[in-house]
Structure formats: structure tokens, C-alpha cells
Write a structure and sequence with these properties.
Layout lengths: L2 E2 L3 H12 L2 H9 L1 H4 L3 H4 L2 E4 L15 H6 L1 H6 L4 E4 L3 E2 L11 E5 L6 H13 L3 E6 L9 H6 L13 E3 L19 E4 L4 E4 L14 H17 L3 E4 L16 H8 L3 H5 L5 H16 L3 E4 L8 H5 L8 E3 L2 H4 L17 H13 L8 E2 L9 H5 L7 H12 L5 E5 L20 H12 L4 H11 L36 H6 L4 H14 L1 H4 L4 E4 L6 E8 L2 E8 L5 E4 L12 E2 L3 E2 L4 E4 L4 E5 L2
Parallel strand pairs: 2-3, 2-14, 3-6, 6-10, 10-11, 11-12, 13-14
Antiparallel strand pairs: 1-20, 4-5, 7-9, 8-9, 15-16, 16-17, 17-22, 18-21, 19-22
The structure holds 1-O-alpha-D-glucopyranosyl-D-fructose.
The site of 1-O-alpha-D-glucopyranosyl-D-fructose has 13 residues, from loops.
């Protein structure tokens, strides 16, 4: 027999009573990690890709005025922090991750006055603003590089990394967005090669030069003095380089760095010294919210960045989760029969345990470098889009880590799955296509894989309404709008009590209401080998909840572990049905959080 949940509020009240007893207090004293409470551990971060959020002037590109016009929507989500992708002056070879002037606003996005209004509007609503620090590399149009490439004697030459051509060809380094896959490009005027871990338009800055560090730290202070609340730091683990540029053979790479160039790049000799310097000179004076994009960071190295005693950064986000389920050695190609849940659970469980006694984790399933979470980790078919997207939201907001939630996921936005290369805008996809073409590779296979994995899937315009172009722009959008905006959009979802949007708000509220359990409470994985159900408990002592997530499209019966007894009413449930008992019957992609008694 199934019975309808009268209201989640009933469950909330039951649970609140349980939370208020002294067991929580006692546990807090014995768990060294949980005892250290910090505001940035308790927040939900909402990431906005400004180019695709809201266009105010009809040029087809989202802008700051567009964000300003939607501040009340952002506030209504219940989130605490907004992370904005780069908004600085840029020729946009990599959509703002190539900065030509660090202290000016990108023309497409507006003016400094717009920025000031935006920041003020956020603070007025109690929302903090985190900007993107892209300091491993600049644009090749940055004045520093324009000067540097003129001559070896130029005062800016040492702002970048060079290999003099008289020494022959430089030792191979992987350039992630380079058509030939090389991180070195020859510059005739200086008769030397410059280093770029990404595209040739993104030369790497020379952090070994103290002047460069000073410039970056001054620039950070400029933004802090304007009142921003923190930085997300783009590929910050790559900043230090062994400037003798030793030969890294494929064997060395395999043996020491797991065959991963990112791991080599993240192990520069002075990395942690520079982070401590940044902390001492800037971060410690202005903020306690910094998050590294942890490219190349492993379970073994993670705490070097975020152990509070080391005075470097607060958080980092890892790549193990989002890299899972791709065929090894093939560029972002999904496993033919989908990813396996036990391996997925193992990754998130390990990343939880690495921060059990020090540091603090983050969790995300989507961002501007990833496809839409519902397509990649859930099921975007019309039948299952809604439940699976709510299920993933439940996962993200019930783990012990600060959630970084990507705009549009609250609506259940899906991959657009372009058929043609001409529809893509992203340098990564375009250059990889060219690289495969030049090598005579299988282009169709690449395009098929990109339908699932391409970054542009996560960059299509935000879907505001059923109006033309989803209400994003009155002009021609810079990238196509997903045609499903007819039904997947804010206006319609706001009216529907059971929409993905309203579910997200409910889940944010739940995390905040039960902070001791859902933010700080211990995480314990149950039934690790179950191929369809991801189940875990959160909490300490008598204050515990059980999270049951069906990651499959099947009805699944899940046996409650011996000795565990669930309360009758779930705290949240993405279906109406729930029958407590020895075996819980789970609907396709059902997600339930229920108190234990
Ligand atoms: O990403 C760095 C990074 O590791 C990713 O580029 C990753 O390798 C890639 O997305 C895998 O497909 C950061 C930014 O988040 C990204 O948008 C930029 O393109 C990149 O740095 C260069 O700045």
C-alpha cells in the first residue's frame, strides 16, 4: 500500500525536533572537521555564465544589465553566493578565459558602472559575489604580451615563458586547445617559442617572475576594494613551472603522473609557496572564500591546497567525478553502455573521506566546461527528464561539501546535441575537430561523442519563457537556444508546484534548515555495489537521515539495512509515493530523504 505524503512540512517539523537535542552538540565536539563551522561551508553557490543568462540590449549576448534585471529571480532561489564566469575585457577566443585587460569590463557585457550596480544589487539582497581569477594565462592581446613578443629585451618578455629557438625544438608539452596538441608556438620576432597550456591565444604567465605575482595580487586587490567577496581560480594549480623544461617522455608521464598532463602541470615546484604568498598578501586581508579549479589535483594532493593550517585556499573542485564514464584514451567519449554507478559512488565517497578530518570539499555535476547534468548523469528523455533532474539536485544538495550549482540545472535544462560542427562556438570542440580532421580520424564518431560531452551543451541560453529565443534576447543569440524552451522555462515552471525549479528551491531550503545534518553531518555510504541505488546516511548520533537515490529508469526494491528504521514521512521526495518498511519500493529516478528513528 502506498500513501500520499500530506506535506513535506510535516516531516520537517518531526525532524526539527530531533535535531534540537543534545546529541548534535556532543558530536560536534568530537568531529574535528565538523567542529569548525564556516559560512562558506554552509552556502549554496549558483554559477552564472554571463554570456548566456540574459541579454538586455538585443545584441544576442548576455550582459551585466541582463543579470541586474534578474536579481530577484536569483534571490528567489535561496542561494547565497553567485560565481560569475570572467567578465573582463577579452577578445573572446575562449569566452573570457583570455583576458586582455584585467581591470576593465568586457564590452559585450557592459561597463564598470554596470558592474558596480550589479554588485550593489547583490549585496542589497544578501548575495555574495565571487569572480573568476584567470591568472595562469592572459590573452595574447593583453598589453603585457603585445609588448613581450616584440623582443627578448622588452621589459615584459619575462612576464611569459619562452624557449629560445637556438636550443632547438622545445620538449613536448600538451596544449589542451591547440590544433596540433602542442603547448609551444613559435614567435618570429624573438626567435623563441612561447608556452600556452591552452590555445595559442592564451600565453601562460610567468609566475616565477615576482613582478608578475605583484601585478596579479594588485589586480586582485583592485576587485576586493570594489567589494567582491572572493575568487574562483581558474587552473590555479598550473601556475608554477619547472623552467628548465625537462623532457617528459610518455613513460615518465605514465609512471609519475598517471599519463595525465594536467597532473604534471599541477605539480610545479613553487606552486604552494605562491599560494601562501597570495594568501598572506591578499586573501587573508580581504576574504575567506576562495576556490581552486582543481585541474590535475588528486586525492593525495588535495589537502595541500585546502588544509586550513596551510593558509592557502578554502576549497577546490576536483575532476574525478566529471571525468568518469569516458572511454580511456579517447577524447571525452562516453562509455557505450553508460557509466557504472558503483564506480561513481566510490569517487564521491573517496572525495568525502579525504576531507574527513581537515579541509573541506565541493560538489558539482555541471558547469560551463561540462554538458548538462541531466543528460550526462540522469536521463533527458521526455519521460525521465524531470524526475532524474530532481534526483541529481537531491544528490548535490545532500552531500557533505559546498554545492556549486550551475544555472539552468534548476530548470532541468538539457544538452542541445548539435548535429553539425558549424553550430558549435567552443574553441575546444572546433580545434579538436580540426585536429582529428588533419589526422584523418573519424569525425562522425567525434561529433556523436560531443552530443553528450561538449562544453557548448552547457552554454546555450537560459530559458526564461516560451517567448521567441526563450526570452533570452530580442536579437539573434550567439549560440542556438535549446528548442525545448517551449516547456522547459522559468515562467512555466514557476507556476507548477512540482516543477524542477520549485523542487530545487525546496531542496535548498531543506539543506539550510537541517544544516547540522545535511551540511556538517557525517556521510556514510550504504550498499556500495548496488548498480542502481545510491544510498547513504547523513548525520551524527541520533540525528540522522537516510538518502535513497534511484539512478536508474527501473522500479527497484531497496532493502533497508538491518536495524535501521525510517520515519513515516520523508523530508523530501520527488514522487508522491513512499511506503516505509523493510523494503523501500523506488520509482524510476526517485529521490527520498527520510529521517531515521
Ligand atoms: O578550465 C580548465 C580545464 O581544465 C578545462 O579546460 C578542461 O581541461 C576542459 O574544459 C576539459 O574539456 C578552465 C576554464 O574553466 C575553461 O573554461 C577554460 O577554457 C580553461 O580553463 C582555460 O582558461
Amino acid at each position: 500500500m502506498k500513501y500520499l505524503i500530506l506535506s513535506t512540512m510535516v516531516g520537517m517539523v518531526f525532524f526539527l525536533t530531533a535535531c534540537n537535542n543534545s546529541a548534535t552538540e556532543q558530536h560536534v565536539k568530537t568531529d574535528s572537521m565538523a567542529s569548525k563551522k564556516d559560512w562558506w561551508k554552509e552556502v549554496v553557490v549558483y554559477q552564472i555564465y554571463p554570456r548566456s543568462f540574459k541579454d538586455s540590449n538585443g545584441d544576442g549576448v548576455g550582459d551585466l544589465k541582463g543579470i541586474i534585471s534578474k536579481l530577484d529571480y536569483i534571490k528567489s532561489l535561496g542561494i547565497d553566493v553567485v560565481w560569475l564566469n570572467p567578465i573582463f575585457e577579452s577578445p573572446n577566443k575562449d569566452n573570457g578565459y583570455d583576458i586582455s585587460n584585467y581591470e576593465a569590463i568586457m564590452k559585450d557585457f557592459g561597463t564598470m558602472a554596470d558592474f558596480d550596480t550589479l554588485l550593489h544589487g547583490m549585496h542589497e539582497r544578501g548575495i555574495k559575489l565571487v569572480l573568476d581569477l584567470v591568472a595562469n594565462h592572459s590573452s595574447n592581446q593583453n598589453k603585457w604580451f603585445i609588448e613581450a613578443r616584440k623582443s627578448r629585451k622588452n621589459p615584459y618578455y619575462n612576464y611569459y615563458h619562452w624557449w629560445p629557438a637556438e636550443k632547438g625544438k622545445p620538449p613536448f608539452r600538451q596544449g589542451f586547445f591547440d590544433i596540433n596538441g602542442s603547448a609551444w608556438t613559435f614567435n618570429p620576432a624573438t626567435n623563441s617559442y612561447y608556452l600556452h597550456y591552452f590555445s595559442q591565444y592564451q600565453p601562460d604567465l610567468n609566475w616565477e617572475n615576482p613582478k608578475v605575482r605583484e601585478e596579479i595580487f594588485d589586480m586582485m586587490k583592485f576587485w576586493f576594494n570594489k567589494g567582491i567577496d572572493g575568487f574562483r581560480m581558474d587552473v590555479i594549480p598550473f601556475i608554477s613551472k619547472d623552467t628548465s623544461f625537462p623532457v617528459i617522455t610518455p613513460e615518465i608521464l605514465k609512471e609519475k603522473y598517471n599519463g595525465d598532463w594536467a597532473q604534471y602541470y599541477a605539480s610545479g615546484p613553487n606552486l604552494h609557496e605562491y599560494l601562501r604568498e597570495m594568501n598572506a598578501q591578499v586573501l587573508s586581508k580581504y576574504t575567506d572564500m576562495s576556490v581552486a579549479e582543481g585541474a590535475g589535483v588528486t586525492l593525495e594532493t588535495a589537502n595541500k591546497f585546502v588544509d586550513a593550517n596551510r593558509h592557502e585556499l578554502n576549497m577546490l573542485y576536483n575532476f574525478d567525478g566529471v571525468s568518469y564514464g569516458y572511454v580511456p584514451g579517447k577524447f571525452k567519449t562516453p562509455e557505450p553502455d553508460g557509466y557504472k554507478l558503483p564506480g561513481f559512488k566510490q569517487i564521491y565517497t573517496r572525495w568525502d573521506s579525504v576531507f574527513a578530518t581537515k579541509g573541506w570539499g565541493t560538489i558539482y555535476l555541471g558547469n560551463h566546461d561540462q554538458p548538462r547534468m541531466v543528460t550526462r548523469w540522469g536521463n533527458d528523455s521526455p519521460e525521465f527528464r524531470e524526475p532524474s533532474s530532481k534526483m541529481l539536485t537531491t544528490f548535490l544538495l545532500s552531500m557533505r561539501a559546498t554545492p556549486y550549482y550551475y544555472f539552468g540545472d534548476e530548470l532541468g535544462m538539457c544538452n542541445i546535441k548539435f548535429d553539425k560542427i558549424d553550430d558549435y562556438r567552443d574553441i575546444e570542440t572546433l580545434n579538436m575537430y580540426q585536429q582529428i580532421k588533419n589526422k584523418g580520424g573519424n569525425l562522425q564518431e567525434f561529433l556523436n561523442a560531443q552530443k553528450i560531452s561538449a562544453r557548448d551543451n552547457g552554454r546555450t541560453p537560459f530559458q526564461w519563457s516560451n517567448a521567441p529565443n526563450a526570452g533570452f534576447t530580442t536579437g539573434t543569440p550567439w549560440i542556438k537556444v535549446n528548442p525545448n524552451y517551449a516547456t522547459v522555462n522559468v515562467e512555466d515552471e514557476a507556476k507548477e508546484p512540482n516543477s524542477c525549479l520549485n523542487y530545487f528551491k525546496k531542496m535548498v531550503l531543506l539543506r539550510k534548515t537541517y544544516k547540522d545534518v545535511l551540511v556538517y553531518g557525517k556521510y556514510q555510504l550504504l550498499d556500495p555495489d548496488n548498480p542502481k541505488i545510491y544510498a547513504y546516511t547523513r548525520g551524527n548520533g541520533a540525528n540522522k537521515v537516510l538518502v535513497i537515490l534511484n539512478f536508474s529508469k527501473d522500479h527497484v526494491g531497496w532493502d533497508i539495512p538491518e536495524g535501521m528504521q525510517v520515519k513515516p514521512t520523508p523530508l523530501i521526495n520527488n514522487y508522491n509515493s513512499f511506503l516505509p518498511g523493510k523494503t523501500i519500493s523506488m520509482e524510476p529516478y526517485q529521490a527520498v530523504i527520510v529521517g531515521l528513528q
